Amino acid sequence: MALGNVMVGQSGGPTSVINSSLVGVYKTAKDSGCGTIYGMRNGIEGLLQERYVDLSMYIKNDLDIELLKRTPSSFLGTCRYKLPAAEKEPEVYKRLFDILNRLEVKYFFYIGGNDSMDTIMQLSNYAAAINSDIRFMGVPKTIDNDLAVTDHTPGYGSAAKYIASAMKEIIRDASTYSTDSITVVEIMGRNAGWLTAAAALSKSEDCNGPDLIYLPEVVFDHDKFMKQVSEVKKYKNAVVVAVSEGVKTADGKYVCEAGKTNVFEDSFGHKMLGGTALYLADFLSENTGIKSRGIVFSTLQRCASHLVSRRDITEAFTAGADAVLAALNGETGKMVIFKRISNAPYSIITDSYDINKIANAEKCVPLDWITEDGTYVSKEFDEYARPLIIGELTPFMVDGLPRHLFIDK
Amino acid sequence: MALGNVMVGQSGGPTSVINSSLVGVYKTAKDSGCGTIYGMRNGIEGLLQERYVDLSMYIKNDLDIELLKRTPSSFLGTCRYKLPAAEKEPEVYKRLFDILNRLEVKYFFYIGGNDSMDTIMQLSNYAAAINSDIRFMGVPKTIDNDLAVTDHTPGYGSAAKYIASAMKEIIRDASTYSTDSITVVEIMGRNAGWLTAAAALSKSEDCNGPDLIYLPEVVFDHDKFMKQVSEVKKYKNAVVVAVSEGVKTADGKYVCEAGKTNVFEDSFGHKMLGGTALYLADFLSENTGIKSRGIVFSTLQRCASHLVSRRDITEAFTAGADAVLAALNGETGKMVIFKRISNAPYSIITDSYDINKIANAEKCVPLDWITEDGTYVSKEFDEYARPLIIGELTPFMVDGLPRHLFIDK
């Protein structure tokens, strides 16, 4: 007899490996004898509108599975929808559980970051309150690497690999002229500097890495910044600086807010950042007279699936697979986590952890992994992050372009 | 007996395949029995300062050759130096020929774009005037694809492949939300829209391509732009627009100049562009209220050697190799060109062509390859450009990052 049906969704900002977790859920649920495996379109928001698909209509064979692993962005579509508190709007929960019960869903998986884990927490707490036997499991996903408890998050390794690789190429490009120049590279990460720190991974036998790195964990000071850049400028003609989009001045204002006319906010109240590099490049041009260029990785750092970390792809799959195994084993209200056993040789084990202790928490780069002057990261960061970018997954190239799996709308 | 010595240099903006041309020159000259193969550091500017290297000190074996093919940016360093007219500053020419004669150089190769071909023209004309037997050959290179006479230029295919691949990933990323959004992607190309047009190559079985494409060949009109975007917005929630950094309004002003405090110019008088996408995204936000994002490929489109076109790499090598063979055959004052025999199956032949008819000319996208409303490119462009992005050259990955060959400074 088939086990119950499955509902899986993707939420929040996409990554290059979020679909590998989807495949991990799908394949493991299927192989374990679950019934229909539904995918919600655009996360919980779409599910509330009863928009979902039978995933077997799209993932038809093992080639599709491999293709989906190589497909960036959220295959099922995503959302930034915050579930209201159950006490305030119980009808939302009633509607959701009605839909799930009607579809005979017993296992619910949500692949996402901080905000998505809030959804799993709300739903599993509500289920406990109404004695529902539906099991709710979170699958970690975020390029930001800012989820609590877990050693790291699927998505981070590939974004870090992209950043480090592109950084090497940019440094080589910037250094080819004998004229003076300053390049400011803007990297994602609202409050946590994990991604910006990954710029340091470009340092290798054939590359010196960026000259300065500014994380959001450290207060940004325009005067210090000018001085530090000028100091490097003394012995190098081409200076390359990595800076987080989320750097803030002492008054708590984002650097990129200077001169912006309108700053969008999403439903979680997060400001849409951007413009830091161009602003700082202009600032440096004006104050030094040196040609300065701003480069922004923008969404490429989360969707460049043509350059993923094989380890990240595998771990993302495992996170999805383990969430299914845990749910089948009776667990609910938990998220799959990674525990680091050792850096070299790299070794992790997976576990599952109480979602109430993960949701809405945020893990930043430890301050003792940042150099005293606040312009670089330490050896400890390198030892932690470098294993996460190892290995490649060759894209499926068709007529010169990476091929993706897609849902025909 | 060894033939004469060789001097080779790289000039202008780097590309992902400019070092493949360098390898083509090096290997062919070596295999043909030339003497020492010198590489000028930072082009003609460095040579005037007597900065050059013996390339055999750096390219020691076939592995180095393969590594150099995979190394982005100009291995020897580059410059943006304009040779003065020989009548005005004959001492510059005298100094250069003194250096070349002292080094017993008989063959001079310069890998570059429009401005670099001007250098070859000046030098070969001067050589003729003083009856020097040094032979000067140009090797085409530019991501902009704007060199006259040749069917296309080495460097364009890889930049086009990067743009088309990244575009696919960006479109997939932008389309994953069910909310409204407009993404404006800025692509290089001062006056010629070849690179921006390459965004159309992202259109494939699994991707609809960008919705609108704005080339610098067409006058940019803010009102029309607003109307065209709004029209697409009616039937799609996520609009993606590709726009050249070089689009100009009817008054001849670059769109990106609006609101800029200082615009740098290089020694050829070219303005340093940038900011078009952010400016237009802000413009759309303000006028539509829809969340708009600007994405700029910046230098990544010319240095992302981790994603090159195999065909481009091979042709870049051939261009360098054929320049050597032509010079050994007695030719001088010419540039290697490609002639297209057929699109399907793709076939080209190489030839060499009088540099006086190439230097300082500029080839734009033919207007009849642009749709009547000026928002897309035609089938003819597709048939021309698609063969150029075919095939891959796997990067040499070491510890998760692409490895490059480099000169220790």
From TrEMBL, chains A, B:
Q: Which Enzyme Commission number(s) are on file for it?
A: 2.7.1.90
Name the residues that bind diphosphate: 13
- This protein's record includes keyword Transferase: yes
- Pathway, per Swiss-Prot/TrEMBL? Carbohydrate degradation; glycolysis; D-glyceraldehyde 3-phosphate and glycerone phosphate from D-glucose: step 3/4
Q: What class of enzyme is it?
A: transferase
Keyword S-adenosyl-L-methionine belongs to the record:
no
Q: Where does substrate bind?
A: 142-144, 188-190, 245
Question: What is known about regulation of its activity?
Answer: Non-allosteric.
Spell out the reaction equation it catalyses. beta-D-fructose 6-phosphate + diphosphate = beta-D-fructose 1,6-bisphosphate + phosphate + H(+)
Sequence positions that bind Mg(2+): 114
Pfam families the UniProt entry points to:
PFK
Compartments reported by the entry: Cytoplasm
Specify the superkingdom: Bacteria
As cofactor, the record names:
Mg(2+)
Q: Write down the InterPro entries for this protein, in alphabetical order.
A: ATP_PFK, PFKA, Phosphofructokinase_dom, PKF_sf, PPi-PFK
GO MF annotations for this entry? 6-phosphofructokinase activity; diphosphate-fructose-6-phosphate 1-phosphotransferase activity; metal ion binding
The record describes the protein's role as: Catalyzes the phosphorylation of D-fructose 6-phosphate, the first committing step of glycolysis. Uses inorganic phosphate (PPi) as phosphoryl donor instead of ATP like common ATP-dependent phosphofructokinases (ATP-PFKs), which renders the reaction reversible, and can thus function both in glycolysis and gluconeogenesis. Consistently, PPi-PFK can replace the enzymes of both the forward (ATP-PFK) and reverse (fructose-bisphosphatase (FBPase)) reactions.
Q: HAMAP family, alphabetically?
A: Phosphofructokinase_II_B2 (MF_01978)
| Name the record gives this protein | Pyrophosphate--fructose 6-phosphate 1-phosphotransferase
